[in-house]
Amino acid sequence: MSEAERADAAELALAFFELRPGAAAQVLEGLPAEEAVDALSQAPARLAAPVLATMVSGPAVRCLTVAGQDPAAAWLRAMDEGDAIRLLRQLPAARCEALLVELSARTARRLRAALRYHESLVGAWIDPGAATVPVERSVGQCLRAFRSPDATTSQLVMLVAANGRFVGAAPVERLVCARDDTPVAELVDRALVPLSVRASIVVAAGHEGWRRYGVLPVSSADQSFRGALTRASLDKAIESRRGAATLARSPATITGELAGAFLAALGGVARSLAAGDSHPRERDARERDASAFSGTRR
């Protein structure tokens, strides 16, 4: 290919990114992460970021994982904050922090605040790799994305609107059995209610969706999609909280309980000794009083 042809191809690719980010996203989803990153890196961050944000979350997260620090941070800067949070949540903690330090202090503070949840809450246990697709996709488009070389498997495909709001979850088995041109929105499990990102793990454990699925969607109060919680992660969270409850009986508390028992026993010994040292008449009087008291109680 000549220099002129390469320049024309690059210009065409940039126009594709700018005018058809959704279509460009679908193309990149079918590529290995390294090739997708190479394509994204050829475009300015202002054009690459919307394409990355539109991609299915699994391939998008893998792109952020394998890309260099500079391009990945540039894409996050150019991305809508909601999309940046959604993708950062699914990155390994070390990679997430490494990218946050590349952002402005103000932006990093906002993102960290959104990412921070107490370990007793569902938000602290969301797993990466939740399969999400735009609600406008067809079954065929979804299946092509999840047949890509980097695709992961899941029981549910999470559907999100353009503004990041959670629309519903479609069981993968329904997609496999449906026609390619069927809108994926028609296959949503209407009975499935998402977990709240701020719900306690105890409340989450009682969700009836676990009877049908090993993974459940998680959304915020404004219904923005925040990720997915697997049953394995929930079990890990519950076990962790059990451990915390055991540790809550700190040495000081245990010492206090032992001291209380010791003092009670010591009091009993003291009373026995006092009874043994007293005059026989006094002992007899105490015994009569005790018998009378027991009779009154009965």
Description:
The chain has 298 residues and is mainly alpha-helical. The chain contains 15 helices and six strands. It has a three-stranded mixed sheet with strand order 1-2-3. A three-stranded mixed sheet has the order 4-5-6. Helix 2 packs across helix 4, helix 3 packs across helix 5 and helix 4 packs across helix 6. The longest helix has 27 residues. The radius of gyration is 31 Å and the shape is globular. The termini are far apart.
Write the layout of secondary structure elements.
Elements: H1 3-19, H2 21-29, H3 33-41, H4 45-54, H5 57-66, H6 69-78, H7 81-88, H8 93-100, H9 105-115, E1 132-134, H10 139-146, E2 156-160, E3 166-171, H11 172-177, E4 195-196, H12 201-205, E5 215-219, E6 225-230, H13 231-248, H14 251-277, H15 280-297
Parallel strand pairs: 1-2, 4-5
Antiparallel strand pairs: 2-3, 5-6
